[in-house]
Amino acid sequence: MTTATDTPENRRPAPAGAHDGAGLALRLPRLIWREIFVSYRFNSNDLWSTVVPASCFVTAAVRNAGLGPYDAALTLVGAVAYFWLFIYGSSLINQITGVEEDRLNKPFRPLVTGDSSMRGAKRRLAGVHILFPALGLLLGVVEWALLWQLLFMLHYAWGGHRHWFAKNLLIALGVVSQLAAAWQMVTPITTAVWHWVLTMSAMTFLIIGVQDLRDVEGDRTLNRRTMPIVLGDRLSRGYFAASFVALLPVTHYVMVAPAGSHWWTVAIDVVLASLSLVLAARVLLLRTPAQDHRTQRFVEWWYTFVLATAVVLL
Predict the structure, then answer these.
(1) Are 83 and 51 in contact (CB under 8 A)?
(2) DSSP H helical ranges for the chain
């Protein structure tokens, strides 16, 4: 006997689109995880110069504004997403336009290893170009997002990276767009905060060329005019060492001294001085590409530590 629920009409196959939708739902977590993994592979070399220190500055702004736990957590989640996209767009265009360079200097990057195709990288760049300013608009910092997009286009796509002065200047302006956005997404920027932002930008202009010490052979092959190539290794290292020593009074008078005399300001001064002197010694004494790479990591840790101190100094 056939029941009403067992008729041929009720046994029709599900529409093809239903299977496609179910398949997509099953694949979606894997696709999302894949995109996170690929973005990490593109960003992994630059997180300590962007996502981590900028998030520290956001934390300082959160404390300064006195946000409650829920608002603070929500703000930090938005900040991490923003600065992840901040560096992702830059990393993508850098690696899309510099595959041959990366074969020489950074063979671990995803376009060289095959973790991403060139076509996939270009699609991701198009997506970031849309998502990044949209998130900036949502967070109230769209002007800084657009400035950063302009700067990294000038830097990578239009050749600013080929001469040390243009490269250093564009990166220093990038620090302004990074730190101004970090503070403004939480609370209005004050004069004291601008002192920090502009000082960090100026100091970055002086020392960012340390990253070029490790890549001299590849940069020379590609006809780049980095500071170590233009000035020579010895003179460049002397310049960087002097710059790190010159940071000592700058960080003290601009950043630490305005917070007053306390045991913790003395401790911060000591740590900053120690890091600066270690960096000066490293650029003078440790000269292999592997040692120069490690020195660049120390520069990033110095940058992060300075911005982390803003949590108690600002």
Answers:
(1) yes
(2) 16-43, 51-65, 69-97, 99-105, 110-113, 118-139, 142-152, 164-184, 191-207, 216-221, 227-231, 233-250, 263-285, 289-313
In this predicted structure, the answer to whether residue 24 has a pLDDT above a threshold of 90 is no
Residue 119 tokens read as 């076509």
Tell me the two tokens of residue 41: 């592979």
Tokens of 262: 């306390």
Q: Using CA atoms, how far apart are residues 176 and 171, in angstroms rounded to an integer? A: 9
Beta carbons within 10 angstroms of residue 312's beta carbon: 13
Residue 15, Cβ neighbours under 10 Å: how many?
9
Q: Which long-range contacts (CB under 8 A, 24 or more apart) does 135-142 make?
A: 135/78, 135/81, 135/82, 135/85, 136/82, 136/181, 138/78, 139/78, 139/79, 139/82, 139/181, 139/185, 140/184, 140/185, 141/82, 141/180, 141/181, 141/184, 141/185
Q: At 280, list the tokens.
A: 């000066």
In the predicted model, what is the mean pLDDT of residues 172-192? 97
**Do 120 and 74 form a contact (C-beta atoms < 8 A)?**
no
Domain boundaries of the chain, sorted by first residue: 41-215+222-313
- Cα(188)–Cα(174) distance, rounded to whole angstroms? 19
Instruction: Give the three-class secondary structure for 73.
Output: helix
Distance between CA atoms of residues 14 and 223, nearest Å: 61
Q: What is the DSSP letter of 156?
A: I
Reported as a single tens digit per residue, the pLDDT across 116-172 is 889 988 999 999 999 999 999 999 999 999 999 999 888 877 777 778 898 899 999
Question: Could you tell me the CA-to-CA distances from 169 to 154, 197, 199, 231, 294 in Å, in that order?
Answer: 11, 15, 14, 17, 23
Mean pLDDT of the chain: 88
Grade residue 9 by pLDDT with cuts at 50, 70 and 90. very low
Token match 């995880």: residue?
33
Q: What is the DSSP letter of 158?
A: T
